[in-house]
Amino acid sequence: MAPISFSSSSSSSSSSSFILAATICLAFILHQAQAQLSATFYATTCPNVSTIVSNVIQQALQSDTRIAASLIRLHFHDCFVNGCDASVLLNDSSSIQSEKNAVPNFNSARGFDVVDNIKTAVENACPGVVSCADILALAAESSVSLSGGPSWNVLLGRRDSLTANQSGANTSIPTPFESLSNITSKFSAVGLNTTDLVALSGAHTFGRAQCRFFSGRLYNFSGTGNPDPTLNTSYLATLQQICPQNGSGTALTNLDPATPNGFDNNYFTNLQNSQGLLQTDQELFSTSGAATVSIVNNFASSQTAFFQSFAQSMINMGNISPLTGSSGEIRSDCKKVNGS
Ligand code: HEM
Ligand SMILES: *[C@@H]1O[C@H](CO)[C@@H](O)[C@H](O)[C@H]1NC(C)=O
Ligand SMILES: *[C@@H]1O[C@H](CO)[C@@H](O)[C@H](O)[C@H]1NC(C)=O
Ligand SMILES: *[C@@H]1O[C@H](CO)[C@@H](O)[C@H](O)[C@H]1NC(C)=O
Ligand SMILES: *[C@@H]1O[C@H](CO)[C@@H](O)[C@H](O)[C@H]1NC(C)=O
Ligand SMILES: *[C@@H]1O[C@H](CO)[C@@H](O)[C@H](O)[C@H]1NC(C)=O
Ligand SMILES: *[C@@H]1O[C@H](CO)[C@@H](O)[C@H](O)[C@H]1NC(C)=O
Ligand SMILES: *[C@@H]1O[C@H](CO)[C@@H](O)[C@H](O)[C@H]1NC(C)=O
Ligand SMILES: *[C@@H]1O[C@H](CO)[C@@H](O)[C@H](O)[C@H]1NC(C)=O
Ligand SMILES: *[C@@H]1O[C@H](CO)[C@@H](O)[C@H](O)[C@H]1NC(C)=O
User: Fold this and answer.
1) Minimum CA distance residue for ligand 10 atom 9
2) Domain containing residue 117
């Protein structure tokens, strides 16, 4: 930045000039910190990148109706651990303990092969230009819009990490067994507020979950000898069929029983009907006195309000601690650090 100087004739105007200059510098730095990503980052270097990403996902959806949900979840699990830096995509190596083997991801996170297909298609069009972290952000937006949800201008310019943080993934990503106050803390730790929490939880409008993540609610909830009292009794009966006691913890069911593959606001009407699948879903509506309740009601009554908030909150999540400028690198293979 060019130095800012003012001529002055008195010491008092000189010191106020200094304060003014310092204020301008500070404002510039703060602005920079918040505005490093840009919707037009690849406008000249890879103008078709969004289309390329979207085309690969459309292709993948033909054989896997779940893939859109799986891809947005990868962006979430990336951003909550050391920021949106594609750390989640790195495989184990001599120097890396992969986040893929962290508790929230192991035998759960999926879609890595499709990310690799997207990366190959993007590299064919614009070699060495687009980061894996930006691919995850673009894939999240495409996945939502291709499923009937909102579109938004994805901010771009993230770079890829040189490391992973498996212990960070173990502790920073929310689990479905936590209290609302713990979940709220984990969001707040990455700068996301209660509106973001409720809006982003609305991503559970599509995709699947394994019995092991909610079967604790079905028979003996918290050692009470009874099911979770906040679970709708007819929905409970359905879930008990899908997840018999002592059955396989890996059986799958839809996160949104109403419209399993569509991106809409039914997730929120489900919560009003005591049909949230995960304990942490239902807590948003059933925790008495919580600030989340009125937000759930608002999104249940207006899909437009939900879509608008969701798009804003995805941008907020995508802004978590990106690597920019000359930090990190543009990986050529999303699974490994360049030259390793
Ligand atoms: C609020 C805290 C959250 C918790 C506790 C949570 C937990 C979970 C769990 C346990 C699953 C099932 C995984 C499996 O069965 O293998 C899941 C699936 C999913 N989550 Fe979340 N999640 C949360 C927030 C989010 C957010 C913020 C997003 C995205 C913006 C998201 C998107 C998804 C999607 C789309 C799926 C389905 C994935 C698939 O079918 O492959 N979740 N989540
Ligand atoms: C972008 O994609 C369209 C088709 O989707 C193609 O016609 C056009 O040539 C591409 N532009 C560039 C710069 O690759
Ligand atoms: C990378 O890790 C994934 C998930 O753990 C695994 O399926 C895949 O085989 C690994 N790929 C390579 C090239 O090691
Ligand atoms: C993450 O959690 C798993 C399961 O508890 C544990 O085996 C692994 O060592 C943890 N990773 C780190 C780096 O703490
Ligand atoms: C790993 O993540 C934890 C929790 O998010 C954080 O406190 C820690 O600083 C991270 N470690 C590294 C080396 O980035
Ligand atoms: C909430 O977080 C605290 C502090 O990390 C932990 O001791 C407690 O077990 C958590 N509670 C739940 C329900 O997860
Ligand atoms: C959360 O932040 C958004 C701005 O992204 C703001 O509009 C909203 O009112 C905030 N919500 C709460 C509960 O503070
Ligand atoms: C429920 O779990 C508690 C604590 O684990 C246990 O003491 C109790 O016997 C269980 N009740 C039933 C009906 O299985
Ligand atoms: C589940 O297994 C426990 C012991 O592991 C047994 O006591 C119980 O009867 C079994 N329940 C059913 C429904 O099979
Ligand atoms: C249970 O779900 C049904 C719809 O399947 C709904 O009519 C009923 O009101 C729900 N019950 C509760 C307690 O929310």
Assistant:
1) 273
2) 49-172
